[in-house]
Amino acid sequence: MQEDIIIQISNRLKEVRTQKNVTLQELADRVGVTKGLISQIENSRTIPSLPVLMNIIRELKLDLNGFFDAIAFRDAKHGIVLGDPIADESGKLKFEVLETEDGQNWRQLASAAMPEALQGEGAFAASNSSLVILRDPGDRNLWFATGGKVARVFHSPDRGQNWQVFDTPILHSEDSTGIFSIAFRDALHGVIAGGDYKKPKKDGPNLAFTEDGGKTWKIASITPQAYFSAVAYDQRVNQAAAQQKAAEQASEANGKKIRVKPIAPERLFIVGEDFIFDFELPNNPHRIGGSKKQGYGFNAVSAYPKGGGLVVGGKGTIAFIP
Questions:
Q1: What is the DSSP string of 165-178?
Q2: For position 27, which CATH number holds?
Q3: pTM over 0.85
Q4: Based on the number of CB atoms within 10 Å of its own CB, is 83 exposed (0-12), middle (13-18) or buried (19 or more)?
Q5: Domain boundary among 39, 60, 81
Q6: Starting from the edge strand earliest in sequence, which strands make up the sheet with 267-272, in order?
Q7: Sign (positive or negative) of CA dihedral 287, 320, 198, 206
């Protein structure tokens, strides 16, 4: 464990120094040590004393207040991490987004294009689903959702080079409110879920859908809407619907028409405090939950690649939905 922490610190120091275009010699001169010592620290060959480490942190203007809220991987090597807002060099609060292309080394995506975070805005970490990327290797979209004083969706179409941010109708204004989870089934169709975790039974605008990549959001028609902590698309159902649509389009292009029963393009798993919605649009959701005596509670959901979902909660609660 100690070695892992040392390696993380070393990699982070080297990453930030390189991003800021500071040479080993320049940093050594500022800190008052040798170039060789800085190189040894960055390559995990020595552990710096606390005064030296603090001087390096000060000279590189590293922020120690960051907190990571979510992590998402497209495959075994390519992933994104989302962190709470920290002040950039100009003093503006910006969400921190890091990227890896080898599963080990991380670099911070340029913050200059990131819209400024508003006062009292943050991302919820409990379900690890406030951040989403698509599994298609050619897709460069990236979304994350926020809560607190506002409930917004940030979107980058080019893996963090440019950003836009959009307001949503999800319940917000208090520290315990906002968007807790976001999911997309393709580049246009997505869902956000949230509410007030301190008032989990309270009805409100807690579930919304988009059909334009997150620019606009429409509240779901189901009522009542309780607090939802997590949401995920069933991957098998969505893939099957996409394949059917592609086959129909190819057939029509050849002057033919396939007559088959259409596959519903959306199946969602929506997690409430003590229940799960198995939701196949346009049908009403099927509610899954134990008895009050059992005291089941749920927090997060992950979709299996071959279909179905795994839902987890407190006190070792695990539920599988085929």
A1: EEE--S--SSTTEE
A2: 1.10.260.40
A3: no
A4: buried
A5: 60
A6: 228-233, 267-272, 276-280, 286-288
A7: negative
